[in-house]
Amino acid sequence: MLRNIVRLQNQVGHVFSSCNLYPRLQQASCTLKYSTASSERKKFYQDVSISQSEGGLFEINLDQRKLKTPGGKLFTVPNEALAIAVATEWDAQRDTLKFYSMHLTTLCNTALDNPTQRTKDQMIAAALKFLETDTICYRVEEPPGMVELQKNEWDPVLHWIENRYNVTIGSSSSILGPEIPEATKDIFRQHLTSYNLWSLTGLEYVITQLKSVVLSLGVIDRYLSVEQAVLLSRLEEEFQIQHWGNVEWAHDYDMYELRARTAAGALFVHLSSETSTVKRKLMQD
């Protein structure tokens, strides 16, 4: 069994707190299809452990078998903290392996196999395209209630990121969205260049879930909790639900699923950037 895993929460601040308007990136869609090629499988192991290879990377062991990626590569992660988090996903599975619920494993597989064969520059360019159709930059002109809600809830976040990165983004009611200055794109491009390939994989995953660069960076920078970011990304839907009602179980399921995926992506970004090793062995019977 795995114990004390909750200590990892302290490494990512409140990102873990509680745990469709625009098209997704074509590359991200490919990644999602790749990650769910086999959604369920009967469990074939009893014990989960981690080990460190001679090269310093960490591996996941299922009984005596070493985990491999869908592409056939040895499943290795750069640090112990991420290895423990992935091992926790495998340890939590019961009689049936539900791969669609193992978001950290999926992200590691994507980073290792790189099924779309993209470079770091291509990933950054794809992420920046979302600025042009960012969820919180597109504003409606009616009804008045929704106009006011968007202003009250989205403007503070927009002002935060403009001040945080010294950029100009703005908002627009045009279907084309606001025209993003090249200087703004350059600043974000420079910022994203500081991310490693693994962290970019996690960030792109969060952006795809929230359909927003602004909200995603808000979560990564710990300005927003996962719950806040998800609610802000669904603002129009929540407004419609308040007026017209909803199918409760379906709404709750979608909400929790989006929270889980967003939290996993944010956690992956932080753990992929982790350079220190967890000194104390957390995996024990």
From TrEMBL:
InterPro entries assigned: ATP12_ATP_synth-F1-assembly (IPR011419), ATP12_ATP_synth-F1-assembly_N (IPR042272), ATP12_ortho_dom_sf (IPR023335)
Pfam families: ATP12 (PF07542)
Matches recorded under PROSITE patterns: PROKAR_LIPOPROTEIN
KW Transcription regulation (keyword) present: no
BP GO terms, sorted: mitochondrial proton-transporting ATP synthase complex assembly
Keywords: Chaperone, Membrane, Mitochondrion, Mitochondrion inner membrane, Transit peptide
Membrane topology (UniProt): Peripheral membrane protein
Protein role: Plays a role in the assembly of the F1 component of the mitochondrial ATP synthase (ATPase).
Protein name from the UniProt record: ATP synthase mitochondrial F1 complex assembly factor 2
